[in-house]
Design a protein that fits this description.
Layout (H helix, E strand, L loop, with lengths): L1 H26 L8 H5 L18
Length: 58
């Protein structure tokens, strides 16, 4: 029974380490997308045509 308590304590400590690392990485901008905006500007936006006319464009 004592080993279960020890394993739970160790697993909680490891989980807290991972949580702390995740929070640190979020605060330091590790997940910011620096590549996306530079590529996004190369592609044209597709214009959406309204379907108020009732016919499809050809």
């Amino acid at each position: 029974m004592g080993i279960i308590v020890l394993l739970i304590c160790i697993s909680l400590a490891i989980a807290l380490l991972f949580l702390g690392g995740f929070i640190w990485s979020m605060k330091n901008g590790q997940y910011d997308d620096t590549y996306g905006p530079s590529v996004r500007m190369l592609f044209d936006d597709k214009k959406k045509q309204s379907k108020k006319d009732g016919h499809r464009p050809q």
